[in-house]
Fold this sequence. Notes:
The protein contains 14 helices and five strands. The chain has about 325 residues and is mainly alpha-helical. It has two domains: about 90 residues, DNA polymerase, domain 1 (Orthogonal Bundle), CATH 1.10.150; about 180 residues, hpI Integrase, Chain A (Orthogonal Bundle). Strands 1-2-3 form a three-stranded antiparallel sheet, with no helix packed on it. Strands 4-5 form a two-stranded antiparallel sheet. The chain is globular.
Amino acid sequence: MAFDLIPPEAGSSGLPALVHASGERAGVRFLEFFAAAIRNPNTRRAYSQAVGAFLAWCEGKAGIRSLTAVQPLHVSAWIELQAREHSAPTAKQRLAALRHLFDWLVTGQVMLTNPAGSVRGPRHSAIKGKTPVLDAAEARQLLDSIDATTPIGLRDRALIALMVFSFARVGAALGMTVADVYTQNRRLWVRLREKGGKQHEMPCHHTLEGYLHAYLDGAGITEDPKGPLFRTIGRGTGKLTCSPLPQANAYAMIQRRASAAGIGTKIGNHTFRATGITAYLKNGGTLENAAAMANHASTRTTQLYDRRRDEISLDEVERIRV
């Protein structure tokens, strides 16, 4: 079986040495964990890296030769190492990867107990996210700087505006098809497929509506409803292809556009989700409605994107007159 699911430390058998040494049943169950138990590709990639690193550490540093020899002490020592070398959220995510894997192996009768089940991760409590945010003027500056006379300009402006005005994650935006932009009650709507396969629909802000109409008409893709909404540009042609725009390409595009617009803030794909939520709340929107629009299960998650306090802090800092 070939996949990007296998941890990078896998040997010639296609499996990490500890898994291979634990027998065929363990190998099959291990592969099933990544192939069947984890559907989100980003989670799968992160878990694969965490599991691969842990198993390599077990073999190289702890002298362990099979999965059944892994004990809570080993997991605890490795997580302690992760907490020293990485952020607390990263260490907690890696512990979660091990817990889920060993749970899967226990239910598959490969192991008797879960050695990660009793291990506690580092404490971490966040009341504000780390995603860089643009203020409304910077967001408008960026959008206005894009040359909308070319297919690539129309595409880039529509993608950035979609993330700002609909609070869409970049993965959901890039996963859209042309048919996911549709008219309902004389208004343009967008259909997003967010984490966990949840489908989320919302009406377009009038600015976004204009940008999407301009993109669809200018790119000539309205007759391809099943095709990807945001597409790559053919090398040397300047025309859209039939291939969806990869997330890494979207990130590179955003960096180029921000630099060309003179934006000093170091931004990323997630910046526009936080920018839109903050702008909405600053203009009288409620946290509950923001959570619904962002498709958050809890307003606690939405609060991580609320950066209104940043301006308060800046104003207060300026009171220090020396």
